[in-house]
Amino acid sequence: MNTIFFKLIPVLFAFFIMGFVDIVGVSTSYVKQDFELNDTLANLLPMLVFIWFAVCSLPTSLLMGRIGRKKQYYVVWV
User: Is the pTM of this model over 0.70?
Assistant: First the structure.
């Protein structure tokens, strides 16, 4: 269990770093202005997007590692 956890840390850290250089930071200011959000709520939106991305991508990558890429494409289309 510990080896899986230590292998997962760099992946999660990469997602976190990706957030700082992604377009989400730029688009947050536009969303803040258009919807008249305060700073806290405007900064919460990118965090929720990255959490959603991690929740969706990590199980998908684990499934891809188990059954293979080609078989996973078939599972997605079914």
Answer: no
